[in-house]
Each structure stands twice: as C-alpha cells, then as structure tokens.
Amino acid sequence: MLKGTKETPVEFTGKAGEYFGIWIVNLLLSIITLGIYSAWAKVRRKKYFYQNTLIDGVGFDYHASPIAILKGRIIAFVFFMAYIFSQHISPFLPTVFAFIILFLMPWLVIRTMTFNARNSSYRGLRFDFNGDMREAAIVFIGLPILIIFTLGLIVPYMVMRQSRYLIQNHKFGLTAFSMDAQAKDFYLIYGKALLLLLGIGAALSVAVTLTVDQNFLLNAVNDMRTVETFANFGIIIAAFFLFYFLIILGIGAYIQSRISNLVWNSTTLGNLSFHSHLRARDMLWLYLSNLLIIICSFGLLTPLAHVRMMRYRASRLNLTGETDFDRFIGDKKADVKATGAEMAEMFDLDITFG
Fold first, then answer.
1. How far apart are the two ends of the chain, measured CA to CA in Å?
2. Burial of 305 (0-12, 13-18, 19+ CB in 10 A)
3. What would the pLDDT profile of 133-181 be if each residue is shown by its tens digit?
4. When you count CB atoms within 10 A of the terminal residue's CB, does the N or C end of the chain come out lower?
5. How far is 168 from 180, CA to CA, in rounded Å?
6. Which letter does DSSP use for residue 327 in this model?
7. Half-sphere exposure of residue 29: CA atoms within 13 angstroms, side-chain side
C-alpha cells in the first residue's frame, strides 16, 4: 500500500442481543408454520447483517421478496423429496438425480449469484452478476471431476478459477470487479498447509516413538479386564482424536484465512482495492470458542457465534482508495427467480468466495 493512500474500514455494528431477538422469532415462527415463514426469516436475517455492515457509515441493504424465496423453496423442496423417495422406486433413480444436479450446477451457480447480487445494494445502487454458462460448466463441473485423475493436485488451480469466476462476473452498478491473483499464489498456500500438516504428523510420530513403550498398546489391550485400564485407554484414544480434530481445524483455519486474504487483496473495483488481513490463530480461536458456545448453550447462543465471526471478518477488511461512490452508475435490472438459489441451499451447495 502506498504511503498516504486512504484506507476506509468495513464496520459491523450488529449486536448479539439484537440478533438473538430476530433469530429466536425466526426459529419459532418457522417451526409453527412448518417452514413457510423461513422465507421471511431469511430476508430478516440478511437485512440485519447487510444493514449493520457499514462503509463510510452507510450500510448495505437486501431487497429480496420473501414470496419469491418461498416459491423457489417449494420447487427446490419438491425436487429434493423426489430425490429422497426415488430410491424406493428404483436403485438407479438416485444416481439419475445426482447427475441431474451435476448437470444443473452451472445454472445453479449463475442463478444463485445473480439473485443475491441483484437483491443487494449499497447507497441505493444494485450489484449484478453476469457469468457465462460455458465457463461455469468448466470451473464447477470439469475441474472438480479432474480432482480424481490428478490425485488432488488440481485443487489450488480449481479454487483460483472458481474464485476468479465469482469475483470478475460481479458488478457494482455498471463497474465490474477484477481479480489478478495467479494459480501459483494458491498453490503456495496449499503447499504450506500440506508441509505444516506433514511436519506436525512427523513431530507427533517422533514424540510417540520416544515416549511410549513399544509394548504399551499390546499390554493395554491384554489388561482390558480391569475397568481402570479400560478407562485410561479410552482417555488416550479420546485425546488422540481431539488432537487430530484440532490439527484439522487449525489447517482449515490457515487455508481459509490465507485464501480469503489472497482473494480480497487481489480484487479491485474501479480505482478501489481491498485489504484483508485475517489471521489463522484468530480464526481457529473463533471456530473453537463458537463451537463451545453453541454446544454449552444447546444452540441458544448461535446468534452470538454468528455475530462474533461477522464482526471479526469485517474488522479485518479495509477499502483502499477514495471512496467516492457517486461516480458509480447503474441501470435497471430484471428480477431473477429464487429457484436456483434455493435449490443450491437445499442441496447444501457452498457457492461463496472470500
């Protein structure tokens, strides 16, 4: 960043107590109405997070119609139930449905991104998405299939292509976003993560070899007759899986933070650029503490976990350059049906970036 360049922070002003009121009402009404209210719940939830995410003191807004979302969810639900019950008709039908979803993937991606973009605004100006179907088929069908044949080596390249596709096909008004990160940048992150994983694994193997008698496990198994020995052995196994879980979570936090920083730091909008500086240790702490908060509260403090994560991510993102948003112009966009977006959500398709 050049000296003297203006940096504008992104702020999140939402509060856990406020969001809890929205969350609990959404949950109860969705249960009472057998899921019908969930469309209105989604709009209320998104509006709260959008309107409390501020740049220069001005929040974003979300404009989707709950009715449009409900219609999309009904169609998605019917398709999903057909998929579930198809196995009782023929063992081959679930495979047919799986291929249909795979074939529809490019359409789902484009419709999801377009619906979300055109229903999002900042200072009254809408976002847009105009992705190409052919390119979507390549990056969301072709490249994932190649994972098998490349033994996973294509994953960093695939993530780069998917991120670039999602970023560069978005617009704010008539101004397109741009991303200039290269494949080598993604390979570097995944390579470091792999080396870190191998290093931890090697260190753990050495530690176990030096501290545990070779006959320990054999003797422990032979002594399983006593309750105390069985309990001690169970504690050792539980500790092993806990440590394994922490390693995987830590590697995930490292990749997530580094990829997010890379994507945002290589993205521009007109003369504006972005500066993201997430830290892996912060993300790991949030993952662990939020998980404990949700478990210990039996899910009632889920809103607190959402607010904590959103506040942290916003606090680590800045805009670089003059934030003169009056120079951006837009035009009227046609409304987009929510079917694709709701089908993607129904089948748990993760279509995000950064």
1. 20
2. buried
3. 999 999 999 999 999 999 999 999 999 999 999 999 999 988 999 999 9
4. N
5. 10
6. G
7. 14
**351: nearest Cα among 207, 204, 169, 210:** 169
Label residue 35 exposed, middle or buried (CB < 10 Å: 0-12, 13-18, 19+). middle
pLDDT of residue 346: 45
The owner of tokens 């440590």 is 243
Helices (H), 266-336: 280-296, 302-315
Residues, the chain = 354
Q: Which amino acid is present at 259? A: I
User: How high is the mean pLDDT of the chain?
Assistant: 84
- In the predicted model, is pLDDT for residue 126 greater than 80? yes
Nearest to 82 by CA among 93, 72, 71: 93
The total of other beta-carbon atoms located within 10 Å of residue 287's CB is 18
What residue type is assigned to position 153 of the chain?
A: L
Residue 348's pLDDT is what? 44
Which region among 80-84, 140-144, 303-307 has the lowest average model confidence (pLDDT)? Answer: 80-84
Backbone angles phi, psi at 351, to 5 degrees: -115, 85
Average pLDDT rounded to a whole number, residues 227-252: 74
Pairing outcome for strands 7-12 and 53-55: antiparallel
Q: What is the pLDDT of residues 213-231, one digit of tens each?
A: 555 555 555 555 555 555 5
Q: What are the φ/ψ torsions at residue 271 (nearest 5 degrees)?
A: -95, 10
Enumerate the H helices of the chain as residue ranges: 16-32, 38-51, 66-89, 93-118, 133-137, 143-149, 155-168, 183-211, 216-222, 227-265, 280-296, 302-315, 339-346
Q: What is the pLDDT of residue 243?
A: 80
The b-or-e profile of 111-149 (16+ CB within 10 A means b, else e) is bbbbbbbbbbbbeeebbbbebeeebbbebbeebeeeeee
